[in-house]
Amino acid sequence: MSRFDQLPADTLFKALEAATPQDTLPATTTLLDAVRFNAEGLLPAIAQQYDTKEVLMMAWMTREALEETLSTHRVCYYSRSRKKLWRKGESSGQQQHLKSAALDCDGDTLLLQVDQTGPACHTGRRSCFYLSLTSDDATINSEPLIHPNELYGNR
User: Fold this and answer.
1) pLDDT (tens digit, 9 = 90+) per residue, 2-16?
2) Helix (H, G, I), strand (E, B) or coil at 55
3) Is residue 117 a contact partner of residue 94, using CB atoms and an 8 Å limit?
4) Tell me: the pLDDT tens digits for 91-145?
5) Distance between CA atoms of 128 and 51, rounded to whole angstroms?
């Protein structure tokens, strides 16, 4: 039993601010009950390559997508455009395998440490963050590893 188990969901993350690695935490399901999904039931998830720390992409997760990811270790997101679960790589073959997952201090953002197979971006680039900005101009900072037509066929 954890000293955090009986706390209301809306105060759990505030109480965890003072927690230490030695504390016993509530079960994952209890923590997920306290996660601050937005009004559409979505949680932003940042995918980072676990060994290089390269930020690969940001996508959205529902609770169902998060639970599937935690249980299978194959990353599953929620596609807002298709309005359904999206298992990363299901059409391109470029999968993400979960190494670890961490919630931020407010329980409203998720950081996924992943092992990315090939490009993470639908443009065929390693990272979705390929458009660099300054106050004066923008530049493309990486070439596609695989042309999108090769990843998805001619769409």
Assistant:
1) 788 888 888 999 999
2) strand
3) yes
4) 888 899 999 999 999 999 999 999 999 999 989 999 999 999 999 999 999 999 9
5) 18
Alpha carbon distance 51, 33 (integer Å): 30
Instruction: List, in order of start, the domains of the chain with CATH numbers.
Output: 36-120 (3.10.20.810)
Q: Are 54 and 46 in contact (CB under 8 A)?
A: no
List, as residue ranges, the binding site.
104-106, 108, 121, 128
Residues at the binding site for Zn(2+) are: 105, 121, 128
Tokens found for residue 11: 């105060």
In this prediction the pTM is 0.90
Give the Cα separation of 38 and 70 in Å (integer).
Answer: 20
| 45 in Cβ contact with 110 (< 8 Å) | yes
| CB-CB contact of 109 with 48 (8 Å) | no
Return binding residues for Mg(2+). Answer: 104, 106, 108
Distance between CA atoms of residues 45 and 143, nearest Å:
24
Distance, CA of 63 to CA of 70 (rounded, Å): 10
Strands 110-116 and 43-49: parallel
Distance, in Å, from the CA atom of 69 to the CA atom of 45, rounded to the nearest integer, reads 12
Residue 115: closest CA among 43, 52, 45:
52
